[in-house]
Predict the 3D structure of the following.
Amino acid sequence: MFITGIGKTKFGVSESPLHEMAYEAAAQALHDADMTPKDLQAVYVSNFVGGPDARQLHLNAVLVSLLQCEGIPAFRTEAACAAGGSAVFQAIRSPYDNILVVGAEKMTTTSAKQNSMHIGFAGDRLLDQKEGLIFPASYALIAQQHMMTYGTTLDDLAAVSLKNHVNSQRNPLAHFAHKKVTLEDIRKSPIVCSPLRLFDCSPISDGAAAVVLTKKKKGNSISIAASAMATDSISLVQRKNLTSFQATKRASENAYKEAGVQAKDLDVMEVHDCFTIAELVAMEDLGVCAPGESGKWVREGKTALNGELPINPDGGLKADGHPIGATGIAQLVELAAQLRGEAGKRQVKNAETGLAQNVGGVGGTAAVHILKKG
Amino acid sequence: MFITGIGKTKFGVSESPLHEMAYEAAAQALHDADMTPKDLQAVYVSNFVGGPDARQLHLNAVLVSLLQCEGIPAFRTEAACAAGGSAVFQAIRSPYDNILVVGAEKMTTTSAKQNSMHIGFAGDRLLDQKEGLIFPASYALIAQQHMMTYGTTLDDLAAVSLKNHVNSQRNPLAHFAHKKVTLEDIRKSPIVCSPLRLFDCSPISDGAAAVVLTKKKKGNSISIAASAMATDSISLVQRKNLTSFQATKRASENAYKEAGVQAKDLDVMEVHDCFTIAELVAMEDLGVCAPGESGKWVREGKTALNGELPINPDGGLKADGHPIGATGIAQLVELAAQLRGEAGKRQVKNAETGLAQNVGGVGGTAAVHILKKG
């Protein structure tokens, strides 16, 4: 399967409603693929809180109506924050030749309290949340464990945040495209849940992203070399180890096998940095470095744009933004742009192989895709 | 693909939370298939309002945790009230050999006002709902058009309701298993939206249903002879004709072709009677009878349990209940039980071929499956 068209709206605070953002990204991806809606055989829509936020859950039918390709099957799929990766994973395994996969989320119109509740729908309500483990608390616990086990420091976390903010300034569609952030800003930002500060957390964003998948290769096509997905217990209580996500490990092992590559063969990576600690854990789970070494890697600039293995060149969830249903698709849009050599000021040199890791909940679901040039 | 295991909870007002109902149906289906969770390669979860109602959207990961089969891919899929049919449609097209498909919904714990809002998430918010076309109003409009065009009467609608309530009294798991309903009750029930009365509307139900799908046939397996899905514009405003659902027509044409059967070859049918008028429209769209003749068919008892083509032997959405995400799966559970000859007091004689039609929104999505004995 190939990614033949890509589209993405500006992430951030949008004045457009959910369906308009979805349409905008979809139209862009179709235009980019030199296709029309009539060429499609199926549509997959990735969206998480469409109901409570935009009051629309039947977004698949809405999108088919807007694109005027009524008739073809259209699905809405969701796996919490891994909804995008899950939609692409399913689309790849479907029998269709030409598929549109759109992810969209509208989050800035609801109150912080409502958003916090909606995001909580992705976590474990039975064991974790009753003990106060809402998302920032869960990731703070993971950060604490990582610090205790490996000596990871606040500076390691800050280095992830700074790198992603620096990258986002080269990405005109990023949520924080125009926000200059210094190490001092990060260090002085308010504590959300110790040790995580405000700048360790991804923002609440609106946005949409889309890819057109085709069985046949076309001019600009990027090859999907591997697609894997795995789950873990939804509750942290049931896990033996908090410094690693088994779902990421399992999915990436399968993906590396399928693509016939190893972490050292990758030129660029998009990982699910909903919190800075998540980027460090992802690096270790994906085999980029040994457990406990991720902080050092980031501090040494190895994952910067001009580093050994650039991670999150678009700014990641931290600075590109995290419109939940769109996130996993946006990662693939960024990788495809990088492998095409069309990533502008944030172009990674000679990028030929890239990996995207998309996580749902606190590691309850993970989707891993590997893309190759041509 | 085969349906090798089936499970269903009692539909109605349940004291169990969403995840427990889902687990109960899943465990039953696995037991029925003589399989354990370890035999599964993927799980599909069909759920509509899990977020706002049960505050859990990552139900796929929850279920994998409860079944202790962490690791395998698990998806949540949704197409409004066609979520169940959509999940089965996608599972059939997946590369896995052994799949669990579970549909579940918890609806009775939220207020009528909240439920009304949540159900509205399945309809068109941009054009229809702004004009007052919430679900009962949309189907009332369809009923009015059907009456004007074909002379369909209130008695035709009442006959559908009565038949389904009579059937549900033979179904111990039905929402209205123990409710005796007379034609007088139906005729005197309050008007919800003219011409639809209370007894023309399906109830708000809790419940779960599950099927185990296998690529290999086993002892009790029922063959899935066809699986089709289609969409239409989500808004009624954009349709030329309100007395017919194009999505049902298109999906069923494809399904009949795939299975090599016609409507006249069917022995039993499950249709999406969210309102009584929807059963009449479905009969015509599925080719059971000519447009305008459905009312007569029902009044003459042709679709009764002992009729020419029994429709909704379990009581349908009207009387078995309509726990949204579970509905499309429950239809297949009923058909499988009928084709196995295990439907007890509501057994349709010599049932060898059955069809299920599951609708999302006001016909924005339709899924049609045809099952064959053996």
Observations:
- The CA atoms of residues 45 and 76 of chain B lie 5 Å apart.
- The radius of gyration of chain B is 19 Å.
- The longest helix of chain B spans residues 324-340.
- Chain B touches chain A through 56 residues (CB under 8 Å).
